[in-house]
User: Fold this.
Amino acid sequence: MTSPDPSPGSSSTAPTAPGSTTSDDTDTDADADATTVPRVTELWVAPERHAPMEPRRRVEVEAGAGVVGDRWHGTRHRHVTLQSADALLEAAEALGAPVPASATRRTVTVSHGVVPTDPGARLRVGGVELEVVRVAAPCALMERSMGPGGAAALRRRGGSVLRALSSGPIAVGDPVEGLLTAPTPSRGAGPARRPDPSTP
Assistant:
């Protein structure tokens, strides 16, 4: 015997239980997450010093060594360099021209947030734990990759040099933990930090 048809005006959709979420709610949560959680937007490596930067969708990081295939792999502590797209927008405003992520020669660019520069600060990018070594100071190469005034525009906006404390992949889209939500007083025009003497 077949089940009777629903009465006129009734719905065949089961009622939503109190406290449960619908697919629309899930989509809204996903959209909110995408805008609030900083994520990796670009990855760049160079096989040797002064070589052109090459884009990647995924890189492998080795604890105590850095990004496999990058020019700094195997160095003492310059394992990963990380910058924020927010800082690139500020640099572009100061320069009066766009500042592509590749022009800064940093490894990882994240969607937003303030990159900590205090030595010892911890970040987690995807499943890889990183520790800040120092601020990533701009060098003379920025004058060629960004144009005249590039190094000055990137000053205090170049992100940080980090050492790898764990191994694993970093991929575009990975979440980033440990970024600051606003500049701290020490990020202002205080005493200059020791510049990075190495050339990107």
Helices lie at 23-36, 85-95, 141-145, 150-154. The two ends are 77 Å apart (CA to CA). The chain has a mean pLDDT of 78. DSSP finds four helices and eleven strands in the chain.
